[in-house]
Structure formats: structure tokens, C-alpha cells
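Pasting as-is:
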Amino acid sequence: MIDNTKSLRDDKVESLIKKYRDEGFTVIQNPKVDQLPFDLDNYQPDILATKNKNESGLIIEVKTSISPVSVERLQSVAEEVSRHPGWRFLLVTLEDIQAESLPGTSEELPSWEEIIEQFSQVSKLIENNNIEPAFLFLWSVFEGALRKRAVDVSIPVERLPVIRLLRTMYSLGELSISEFDIIQAYLEKRNRLAHGYIQKLDSEVLHTFIMLIVKLLGEWISNISENQKIAVLEVVRQIMSSMTKNNQENTAQTNQKIQEIVVSELHNHPKEKEILAKIKHAVEKEEGGNNFFNELQHLSDEYYDTSTESKNQQVNKNEIILDDNAQIALDALPTQEKEKISHAISYLEKFPDCPEIEVPNLNSSPDNDFIAKVGIYRIIFEFQPKKVTIIDIVNYKRIEILYGLLAKAKI
């Protein structure tokens, strides 16, 4: 296991040396103390990569995930390196987050101005009630700020996986116990969302996270300008405004659902009016209580009207009966025509009040026999109170003959 780890580390070192040389760096592996551009108190890195005649470059330490990393010791080295313009100290491990660019060759992290600008964009997601996407976006802002802070204070862990990054920043005092606990809990939520699992969040989670990020930005941005302070405060104002608007909409939706449930349960209850009076008394002293009750009362009235109308419609429906001949004729029709006829028959439930279907000569037959027109077909039916009997369904070519026979049969 140890030999395998050493082999992986050696492969990493060789890979980095090749890549830096391909980028035009002069590279020395395991440089001696006198080969370093400045005194690092007998510290010897794994790689020295220089450019511009040693005026700038990278001092690199390569570690595996198994070998212990004394970040405090490396931090003192990083602080000394940062005092020399053009130079940067890098800790590279086998656990590093994936990046397309070569470590240290380009600015991989956003500036504080860019982080503030990103932070401001979360208000649009919150305004549209996109809570989970807003949380993921906030996490990317937070993690970018955390890595940026590590670089600023010469803690060479900006390339580590987030959980090791968090623990190191906490152990070195960049995060308090309460902050670390919140972030660690939120990391679990972030991981579930990022890996496709369902993780429902509420606005309180966002509020806590936003306030934490605002606090950390204020502490981490060194020499923050007045314009940056104003920008952060404006971002918070926009976000809080979006959250307030969103909460109001959610409250209104919740009230509507509650009102619908109450009205549904109270309908036809023998003490409906008494219960409504108690509800009114209970909420009238609360802020918005009168509006809530008025909406409830209005919904109750609408429910009653709708219910009464529905009952009346049900009372006025006719029973539809198909004679044997009519059923045989219907079954023999092509599928498309059969659907048209069945649809037309359903309108006769409201006969004689059914404008959707043409029934000529409504009063022509004293025997209550009627003919409804549906394309090239005719529905012959008999109407009695609350009852429509379908006698036959025929093609218009046979209607005169059939109707004549029907009339004769009645005689």
C-alpha cells in the first residue's frame, strides 16, 4: 500500500514537471536550499518552476491523501512566498479538485468583485421560488469565497476537496464552531441536490445561508471599499425583498388551500353558520384576519352556488335508454362515427334544452317522437319527462321510409 501510494505521488510529480515545461517554465525537481530564489528557512519543495529569468514562478509541494499534511508549517512558507511579487506557493495533492488549467498558471478563482456580482444574481432565483437552485447557486458563491479567502491569507488549501478545505479553514480559525456546524449540515444538503436526490428546502435555510455569507464576506474582504460595502448591502436588500415577496405569495397560496378545505368540510354541516361565526371571532383581531375571513365567506358562498347549480343540473338530467335496434345500429357504425353519435346522445340528457344538437320539428309529433341530426345520420328518439328512449340510428337515405313505418306502427 505504501509503495503504491509512493508510486502515485511520483507519477503526479513527473506529470506536473512535464506540463510546466510544456508551458515554458524552467523546472527543477527537489531543488536545494541555495537554488531557491529566497530564504525559506531550510524548507525544500518538490518542484521549483520559474519564468522570466527567475523573476516569477511557483514553489510546489506535492502530497498524497495518506501522508499527513502540516498546513500550519506550509502556511508559514506560503506567507513568506506571498511577500515576493510574482511568486506563489502551491500545495498539490492527489485529492485535488479537477481543473482544466495547470495549477498556478492562471487565475482560477473569481475576484471579490466577481463574487459579489454572482451573489447578487441569486435574488432572481428566489423571486421565482426556485429554492433548491438558489441554494446550489449560493453554495458555489460560498465555496468560491472560501477558496479565495484561503489564497488571501496564505493557507495553501484552495485546491483541496471541499470537506478538507472546510476542516482546515475551521482548524485555523477562519470559521467559528457554529459557522462550521451550519456549513457542514448544508454541505450534506448540497451533496444530495448535486447528485440528483430529492432534497426539499424552505426559505429559512436560504435566509440563514445568506446571512452567513454576508457575515463572512464582511470579514474576509480585506480593505473593503465603500462601494463594495454598498454593493453587498444592496444585494442583501434585493434578496430579502425577493424572499419577502415569495413568502407573501406562499402565504396567500396556503390560505387559499386552508379556506378550500374548511369550506368543503363545512358544506351541509348542520352547524355551518355557527362554526363560521367562531372562525370570524378567532381571526378578526389578527393582522389580515378580516381579509382571511371575508375570503373564506366569499368562497363558501361560491361553493354553495356551485353546489346548488350542480344539484339542479343533476335533477334536470334525462335518463337515456337505447332500444335493441338502436344499440345494434350503434354497434355496427365505424368507430369514428360511433363516437360522434355517442357524443350527440349524451347531449340529449338535457333535452329539450340542448342547443349543441339540431332537433328539427320539435313540436311536429304529438306522440313525442323526435329526430336529431348528426351529419349523415339521424337519431330517432322518444321523449317523456325525465326519459329519452333512443329508438333507432339510421342513415338519412332511410329516414323517410323508417319514420313512415314508425308513425304507422304508432297508429
